[in-house]
Structures are given as structure tokens and as C-alpha cells.
Amino acid sequence: MSERSECTCEEKLDAAIESLIYVFSSRDGLMRKSAREALVVIGRPAIPSLIQALADKNKNVRWESAKALEEIGDPSAAQALVARLKQDNFGIRWIAAESLVKFGKDGLRPLFLELLQNPDSGFLRDGAHHVLYSIAGKDPSLQGILSPVIDGLGAVSGAKDVVPYIQAALEALDIEAESVEEDELLGDS
């Protein structure tokens, strides 16, 4: 009997999460905020659905989903939020960046790997600059590691010039970069 109850509870929770995310498409900002607050209370179980909603065609759904993920504050959403740093919608990029700042060191690996794979993305570079600058400001122990990357991202020179600084930061932070091949970093095919 308890197996059936658990299944029913999970199904009901999933349905509630989907219903709350549906409210994000409303024009009523107060309704969207209430739905977001409810999803934040639900917490971790809502993360997969919120991550999926980051790709919705409706900008309100994307923004509210990113804001909910920021407020939940779970670094498991970092990779999905890093991907949003490349979007053309400034509001979504800003919320994604602020979420990554909140994650601190826990959000650096996906950010660095995305930078290594897409060093020419202006939106990504700008967002990463903000994230790293803010994290370094909050955690002085990271300033020496992050400063060369921050300076490299802010430089006008070629995007690939920042790659060695990112690699050095990954090494200094003892973060594995196994998913990025050296050929990819250098742009060889």
C-alpha cells in the first residue's frame, strides 16, 4: 500500500510543479511571483522541470524559471544557467549570472567549460566576467585565481587569449576539465 501512496504523491507533486510552471506564462506578475515562491518552497524536486522550462519560447517562463532556480540556490542547475548566459534576452542573462554568483565556487566548473568551448561568445564572456568578478569580490581566497581570467575576459584582444587563464584556474581550483579536448580548445578539427 505504501508503494502506491508514494507513487501517487510523486505524481501529484510532478503535476503541481507543472501547473505552477504553467502559471509563469500568465501576464499577471503577482500570479507568476506566487507560483515562483511555491516552487522555491518545493525546492529540489522542482529543479528538473525548471531547467526544462528555461528553454520555453515564452520569455516570462524562462525568466521566472531562472529566478526560481536562483532562489532555490542549488548548484545542480549551474550548467543549465550557464547556457542561458548566451541568450539575447538581457534579463534572463542577468538572472542566470546572479544565480551563478550565488553558487560561488560550485558554479565555476560549468562556467569555465562553457567558456573553453565558446570563447568567442560576447554575451557569455560578459556574463562570465560579471560572475567571476562578483565571486572574487565575495571570496578573497579566489581573487588570485580568478583575476587573470577576469582581466582576460575584459581585454579587447582575441577571445582565445583567455583560454590559458581558464585552464590555469581550473587546475588551481582542482577542477577536472576532462570533457574538453585540447583540439577543441585550440579550434582544430
Order of helices and strands: HHHHHHHHHHH
Strand content: under 5%
Task: List the total number of helices.
Answer: 11
Largest sheet: none
Rounded to the nearest angstrom, the distance between the terminal CA atoms is 57 Å
- The assigned structural class equals mainly alpha
What's the alpha carbon Rg, rounded to whole Å? Answer: 18 Å
**Strand tally, please?**
0
**Which regions contain 5 or more consecutive residues with pLDDT less than 50?**
179-189
The average pLDDT score comes to 88
- What would you call the shape? elongated
Helix content: 55-70%
Spell out the blueprint of helices and strands.
Layout: H1 2-23, H2 29-42, H3 47-53, H4 59-72, H5 78-84, H6 90-103, H7 108-117, H8 122-138, H9 143-154, H10 163-172, H11 182-186
Kindly describe this structure.
With 189 residues, the chain is mainly α. 70% of the residues lie in helices and 0% in strands. It is built from eleven helices and no strands. Helix 5 (78-84) packs across helix 7, helix 6 runs parallel beside helix 8 and helix 7 runs antiparallel to helix 8. The N and C termini lie far apart (57 Å).
